[in-house]
Write a structure and sequence with these properties.
Layout: H1 2-21, E1 42-43, E2 47-49, E3 55-62, E4 68-73, E5 78-83, E6 85-90, E7 96-101, H2 105-113, E8 125-130, E9 135-139, E10 142-146, E11 154-159, E12 180-186, E13 192-203, E14 209-214, E15 224-229, E16 234-240, E17 246-252, E18 258-264, E19 276-281, E20 288-291, E21 302-304, E22 311-312, E23 318-325, H3 353-358, H4 360-364, E24 368-373, E25 379-381, E26 389-391, E27 400-405, E28 421-427, E29 433-440, E30 445-446, E31 452-457, E32 462-467, E33 472-475, E34 500-503, E35 510-513, E36 518-521, E37 530-531, H5 536-539, E38 541-545, E39 561-567, E40 573-578, E41 586-591, E42 594-600, E43 606-612, E44 620-624, E45 631-632, E46 646-654, E47 660-668, E48 677-682, H6 706-711, E49 715-719, H7 728-745, E50 749-759, H8 761-770, E51 778-782, H9 788-792, E52 795-796, E53 801-802, H10 804-808, H11 823-827, E54 841-844, H12 855-866, E55 871-874, H13 886-905, H14 911-915
Parallel strand pairs: 48-49, 48-50, 50-51, 51-54, 54-55
Antiparallel strand pairs: 1-3, 2-3, 3-4, 4-5, 6-7, 7-8, 8-9, 10-11, 11-12, 12-13, 13-14, 14-15, 15-16, 17-18, 18-19, 19-20, 21-23, 22-23, 23-24, 24-25, 26-27, 27-28, 28-29, 30-31, 31-32, 32-33, 34-35, 35-36, 36-37, 38-39, 39-40, 40-41, 42-43, 43-44, 44-45, 46-47, 47-49, 52-53
Helix pairs in contact: 7-8
Organism: Shivajiella indica
EC number: 3.4.-.-
GO molecular function: hydrolase activity
Length: about 950
């Protein structure tokens, strides 16, 4: 026996070396993911082609350490990198990339630990990368930079470097109040111009000039507004002011010929400020007041708004500005203890008081639109408290604008958040308004050239156009059997639209989506509708138009169109080409992936896009317009091959209501159908169409991380849920339970090791399901609604909205008010049936949750505590609806996995589960260490 064992050992030792000598590589041993792996993964947060299509710039940024920008040469297939780049912009001439270089994170952390002051902390540098030489030049201590939007060759940046003095014995420090040094750099020849004490600056879009505000250097530059002509190299002061004057919103027209800005020229401490609208035109000398509180056309006791950015129409003939009534001011003579601070909640308030508080800053800065004809200088007030919202056409050239008034319907927002709106046409020359339609439940817009107003009406599931010239309103899809509202809507409200692709040339047609296809409608209602993509519904393929030019205003049906495609049956995706003389779009690419088209190079037929599935990270790829010559240009996370991953597949079953359902089953990489695996059910509403989504390791904020668990030998089941009004909890039960049973019947699920997890809406459903079954061995439910009777009368504190609409019209799907029928509120509330729960429950609800009041979590926790049922609740202090701070996200994911490992894998219990973490230890002892097994 001893000789046999010795011989076996020799064979084991010899075989690997023999195999290697024979050329067989050793098998790579992969390891499961842990929470430590989060730091290895990088994201591509910036990605852009140069306009000439010869280079692509993209970042590779870890979540909690320094990243870098890659400049990839698509011609030579080479790349250059610069560390810690942020705020990246590419010049319009494709010659340079400009960016800030941030200080090293570990250095900043170290200095913060030393309690260093802000001025002692390292400053950002400026990086200028030359695509031709592949050299990156750096400038230290840079505060900000700007480049022209549509012209290359120029760069302006502000530096925080201080000067010793200004030469006349006086010193004036660079600061937020005084301004900073502005450097204007010619990127072609390297020449520089310097301007001191600049507070604000802006290039014209076309690169003809630089506009800036300086507080003056007490030598050769006095305070005021300056224009630097980039063509002639000359500087002109266009407004002479005082260093105590305040200027806002420097604005230049598209041609670079006109300038507007807001000026506060009052050097006193008057509480009511009277801003002036200043205007300058090339060749006109100094800027002058174009409008103020005395200008004809401005309502009595109104002012020019200091909170609205003046903007020119595209042709430069109009200037749109804001106005506002004189504000209500606090009596500054009163001491704090003399002020009465009381909220008066009136039952007919437009907005309930919490929403008023959330809107307070917006209301203080509220502006009403006005327009100035720059030829006649006439000012016309367009907006008003009666018609507060004004929408103009894309270029600001039309003779009318669209006015929207929702005042009569604001009270109903308490229980119906979408409410209604009245629509008005307003004449730009007179300001006169004319009613177009009342009680519109939909988002109305002007067509690009403002010949039409168009909207989707939710109650009608129909699109409408209103021809402004004739006053005729047309229901576009009248008589069509196809729905243009969501076909599978399962909330007690009207279905939302699928959207639209845009307008065709000369506003001849409007292109609108149904569930699958693109339809062409005559906005005047004369010609019959026509389906452009004629096979979408028949083949269950969703077609959507891909806009390749960000400045495109109209869809040209005389050209080939690029469409995205998604197959609802196979979940495959890709792209197709639509041609006017072909019956159906021709598929260019369609695979078992998820695609995202990022952009087309402005000057070349080159596309930048990503492709992903569960195994494949969405790295960057380029291809021509036919998706030929496709190649990958980034490799963000090659370390993925070191880890165990998994697979994703569609599962189908029927609900207890006999409704066909789909879901996703994630399996471990080395799945063995003969084994019994623990499984966690994770869900929300419908996720099956995300089959090919990649889930990189990262501390996500609220749900079980699918990849992390699958890598650690779990099954993850993500079932779709459909709902019946009035039965949200039972609907979830009826969908999920048979799906789990179906998988158990396949033989590879350990039926005694199944968990369930959800957050917010699915957290509620999880708590409800636990009152109906003992199927699950453990459950985590985050940010739940435990008691629909108390939650119904609550507030969503982040927005200030009442929660009633949630239950009557939206996701909670009860469809009635508490007084119409209280029983659904009780029957769907897990709190009232907590005594039936036999599953250990981990809750997470944070005390700053602005979506679901955290007292809902408290109600459930106290019920479970009173009933002596095993429960824990995590409250990340100061966090909202989910943990945001990275350390808290990691902590939550760690605790949740420890919880499931203990119940589903019989792992040792962590200390926080055994004894908790007392308040005296909070922030000191985390209790993550595992409790030793008893001897």
């Amino acid at each position: 026996m001893k000789n046999i064992i010795t011989a076996l050992i020799l064979v084991i030792l010899v075989l690997p070396s023999y195999a290697q000598r024979r050329g067989t590589p050793p098998q790579k041993i992969k390891r499961p993911l842990t929470h430590v792996a989060y730091d290895e993964w990088k994201s591509i947060t910036f990605r852009q082609l140069t306009p000439d299509g010869k280079h692509v710039a993209f970042t590779l940024n870890p979540e909690d350490s320094d990243g870098k920008v890659i400049f990839y040469d698509l011609v030579k297939n080479t790349q250059s990198a610069v560390d810690r780049a942020a705020n990246i912009q590419l010049t319009a001439d494709s010659r340079h990339a400009v960016f800030l270089i941030k200080a090293q994170k570990d250095s900043l952390t170290y200095l913060r630990r030393l309690k260093k002051k802000k001025e002692e902390m390292p400053k950002d540098s400026l990086g200028i990368f030359d695509f031709s030489s592949k050299i990156a030049n750096k400038v230290p201590n840079v505060k900000s930079y700007k480049i022209p939007k549509k012209s290359g060759g120029w760069l302006a940046y502000q530096t925080e470097r201080q000067t010793e003095g200004n030469g006349n014995g006086k010193s004036k420090k660079f600061s937020d109040d005084n301004g900073y040094l502005l450097v204007l750099k010619n990127l072609t020849n390297g020449a520089e111009e310097r301007f001191e004490y600049v507070k604000d600056y802006i290039f014209s879009e076309n690169g003809t000039g630089l506009l800036f505000h300086s507080t003056g250097n007490e030598q050769d530059m006095i305070a005021g507004i300056y224009w630097y002509d980039l063509m002639s190299g000359s500087t002109s002061q266009i407004f002479k002011g005082h260093n105590k004057h305040k200027y806002k919103y420097l604005s230049i027209d598209e041609a670079g010929e006109q300038i507007a800005f807001i000026a506060d020229l009052d050097t006193t401490k008057a509480l009511v400020r009277e801003p002036k609208l200043m205007y300058w035109k090339r060749g006109s000398g100094l800027a002058s007041v174009l409008a103020d509180e005395e200008t004809p056309g401005i309502p009595e006791s109104w002012l020019i708004s200091e909170n609205y950015y003046p903007n020119f129409s595209k042709d430069g003939k109009r200037l749109f500005i804001g106005t506002n009534p004189v504000p209500v001011l606090q009596d500054t003579t009163l001491l704090p203890e003399e002020m009465v601070q009381v909220e008066v909640w009136h039952w007919q308030d437009d907005y309930i008081y919490p929403e008023q508080n959330r809107r307070l800053d917006r209301e203080k800065k509220k502006s009403y639109l006005a327009v100035i004809d720059l030829q006649t200088k006439n000012l016309v007030q367009l907006g008003s408290p009666e018609i507060p919202e004004i929408r103009i056409d894309e270029e600001g050239k039309a003779a009318v604008v669209l006015g929207l008034d929702d005042r009569a319907y604001r009270v109903m927002r308490t229980w119906d958040i979408s409410a209604f709106t009245d629509l008005y046409r307003i004449d730009l020359n007179s300001g006169k308004s004319q009613l177009i339609a009342k009680e519109i439940k939909g988002n109305a817009r002007l067509s690009p050239d403002a010949n039409f107003v168009y909207w989707y009406s939710s109650p009608d599931t129909a699109w409408f156009t209103h021809h402004l010239a004739t006053g005729k309103t047309v229901k576009l899809n009248h008589g069509l059997s196809v729905s243009f509202g969501e076909e599978d809507v399962d909330v007690p409200d009207y279905p939302s639209p699928y959207g639209l692709a845009g307008w065709t040339l000369n506003e001849e047609f409007i292109l609108i989506y149904d569930r699958f296809d693109i339809w062409k409608f005559d906005p005047k209602g004369v010609r019959n509708p026509e389906r452009l993509t004629k096979n979408g519904r028949e083949s269950n393929i969703v077609y959507r138009y891909q806009k390749l030019d960000p400045e495109e205003r109209f869809v040209d049906l005389g050209k080939n169109l690029l469409l995205s495609v998604f197959d609802e049956n196979s979940k495959e995706a890709g792209f197709a080409r639509w041609q006017s003389n072909f019956a159906n779009p021709s598929i260019l690419v369609k695979t078992a992936h998820r695609y995202n088209l990022i952009e087309k190079a402005k000057e070349e037929d080159l596309l930048l896009f990503t492709r992903e599935n569960f195994q494949e990270f969405p790295d960057l790829r380029v291809a021509d317009l036919s998706f030929g010559n496709s190649r990958k240009v980034s490799q963000a996370n090659p370390q993925q091959s070191d880890y165990l991953w998994g697979t994703a597949e569609i599962v189908k079953w029927n609900s207890l209501d006999n409704i066909p359902l789909e879901g996703i089953l994630y399996k471990p990489e080395n799945f063995d159908p003969k084994k019994k695996y623990p499984m966690v059910v994770v869900y929300y509403e419908k996720f099956s169409n995300t089959l090919h989504q990649h889930h990189k390791p990262e501390p996500i904020r609220s749900l079980v991380h699918r990849t992390m668990y699958v890598s650690n030998d779990y099954l993850i089941f993500v079932p779709d849920v459909v709902y019946q009004t009035g039965y949200p909890g039972e609907s979830a039960f009826n969908c999920i339970i048979p799906g789990v049973n179906y998988l158990i019947e396949q033989g590879f699920v350990n039926k005694d090791r199944v968990g369930i997890q959800g957050h917010s809406w699915s957290g509620y459903q999880t708590a409800y399901i636990l009152t109906r079954t003992r199927m699950f061995r453990a459950a985590e439910a985050g940010a739940i609604v435990a008691n629909m009777t108390s939650a119904y009368g609550g507030i969503r504190w982040e927005s200030g909205l009442a929660r009633m609409f949630q239950y009557e019209k939206a996701q909670s799907r009860l469809g009635v008010s508490l007084w119409e029928n209280p029983l659904p509120f009780i029957e769907n509330s897990p709190l009232f049936f907590a005594n039936k729960i036999e599953t250990p429950l981990l809750l997470m609800h944070n005390d700053a949750d602005g979506a679901v009041p955290w007292y809902q979590g408290i109600e459930m926790y106290l019920a479970m505590r009173r009933l002596n049922k095993p429960t824990w609740m995590l409250n990340y202090n100061g966090e909202p609806h989910w943990p945001v701070k990275r350390e808290n996200r990691i902590d939550f994911q760690t605790r949740m996995m420890q919880f499931f490992d203990h119940y589903l894998k019989d792992a040792p219990m962590p200390m926080w589960m055994e004894r908790g973490v007392p308040a005296i230890e909070k922030g000191i002892q985390q209790g993550l260490e595992l409790v030793p097994a008893p001897y």
